[in-house]
Specification:
The protein is α+β, with helices and mostly antiparallel strands. The chain has twelve helices and 21 strands. The strands form seven sheets. A six-stranded mixed β-sheet has the order 6-5-4-1-7-8, with helices on both faces. A three-stranded antiparallel β-sheet has the order 9-12-13. A three-stranded antiparallel β-sheet has the order 10-11-14. Strand 7, helix 6 and strand 8 form a beta-alpha-beta unit. It starts with a helix and ends with a helix.
């Protein structure tokens, strides 16, 4: 993503904020894992979206119309000892040129500088509740102003949820963002295809997971979320992540894995036979889910509303399960025990990306630039009240789809999805 892309986002947000407003947004903190070991740092998605800055201990400030600079950044000072252990720090001296900031200050000086910036504006745009330490500092800055002026007249009079504006912006992907999502999709598709070709009976789930570890890191990507590798009845656990059981000959394996590349995510699921051949029952159930996914994708077009794809998937699953004798009636309300989740979610910098699904009391209308997953699934527990041949079977199929002015654009195209294509891919 280029600096101009981030600058354009800041300009758009400042137009919405107006010259009476000020926006303050923090970077993600470092999280301790255990003793003196930290979790790998990953920048806050909103902060990254506006700045492109990947360091902790930073705060961004947008002040529309401010003559001496509209975009200010507080960040860590350079520290030779720290950099010897942890790598280079940008520093306030280089941040303006590197990040197109109008000015930058040491984060240690924020208590002295930020209150003076706040007093010039009547509306404060900020996201509260995510980082308690930042929230505490914010209340202290406001208290400093009140103490200084002995009233609240020189503090912002209105507090507005920054995420309300920002998350609506993030819902609409630019051309550069779509290109980034396509790159993440390409790496993820290749990893799934490789895993599909390599899996063998008696592997363990973690062995299959390792194929994705290698493929993602080889492309300078990382997992966008903990992968799900569920063999047999483990696939009935929707967020199964133990990934430590044996993959048995004759079982299906459900693999839900996607990479994050340059902060943009992919999210793909495929279900296939460990031994490379679907049984008749496995193929029949698989085709029900595939038909549901195809019906849902067809409805991801401009002008339709968000829930139409979900409704179509549920109706298709109900018809299919009725035809197989698993449910007594082709009723979408009667399949909740087999299809327990929504058919998709927004996708972008976050896997479960931001953006409202409803506007007021109505489902959101789809527009070009929105990107979502389509992931219907059917899960039949091992003790379900159905014919024994169906028990313990689970199938989910998931792809990433962009809404365009024409047909839906499946970003994760090219990965085997029909029964015949999967079996052919697994033969190599």
């Amino acid at each position: 993503m280029t600096p101009d892309e981030f600058a354009g986002r800041r300009r758009q947000l400042m137009r919405m904020i107006g010259e009476e407003g000020i926006a303050v947004f923090p970077a993600a903190p470092i999280r301790p894992r255990n003793r003196d070991i930290d979790y790998p740092f990953r920048q806050d998605s909103d902060f990254y979206y506006l700045t492109g800055f990947e360091e902790p201990d930073a705060v961004g400030v947008l002040i529309p119309g401010r003559p001496s600079g509209e975009y200010l950044l507080f960040c860590r000072e350079k520290d030779a000892r720290h950099e010897a252990w942890h790598g280079a720090i940008t520093g306030p001296e280089d941040a303006p040129s590197a990040l197109q900031a109008d000015d930058a200050f040491p984060i240690a000086d924020i208590d002295d500088i930020l209150p003076g910036l706040l007093e010039s504006r009547s509306r404060l745009y900020v996201t509260m509740g995510q980082y308690p330490e930042f929230d505490h500092h914010l209340t202290e800055w406001l208290a400093t102003l009140r103490d200084q002026y002995k009233s609240s007249a020189n503090t912002p009079q209105e507090f507005v949820a920054l995420d309300h504006l920002l998350h609506d912006m993030r819902l609409y992907k630019s051309r550069r963002e779509l290109a980034a999502l396509k790159r993440a999709a390409k790496v993820t598709v290749a990893a799934h295809l490789n895993a599909m070709r390599r899996v063998e009976p008696d592997w363990y789930e973690y062995r299959l997971e390792a194929e994705f570890d290698y493929a993602f890191r080889s492309a300078n990507a990382r997992h966008a979320y903990p992968p799900i590798v569920g063999g047999g009845a483990n696939a009935c656990v929707l967020h199964y992540t133990r990934n430590d059981a044996r993959l048995n000959d004759g079982d299906l394996v459900l693999v839900d894995a996607g990479c994050e590349l340059d902060y943009y995510a992919a999210d793909v699921t495929r279900t296939y036979p460990v031994n490379g051949r679907f049984s008749a029952e496995q193929a029949a159930l698989y085709n029900v889910v595939l038909a549901a996914q195809e019906a849902a994708i067809e409805r991801l077009t401009v002008g339709r509303h968000w829930n139409e794809a979900h409704d179509a998937a549920r109706l298709t699953v109900a018809d299919g399960l009725h035809d197989l004798g698993i449910v007594a009636a082709a009723d979408a309300d009667g399949i909740d025990g087999y299809f327990m989740h929504r058919t998709g979610h927004w996708l972008g910098i976050d896997v479960h990306d931001v953006g409202d699904y409803r506007v007021g009391d109505r489902w959101r209308e789809l527009e070009a630039g929105m990107v979502c997953t389509v992931e219907p699934g059917v899960y039949i527990e091992h003790d379900a009240d159905v014919d024994e041949r169906w028990r313990g079977l689970a199938v989910r199929i998931e792809d990433v789809v962009a809404v365009t002015r024409d047909e839906p654009d499946v970003l994760t195209h090219g990965l085997a999805k029909t029964v015949d294509d999967i079996e052919a891919a697994m033969r190599g």
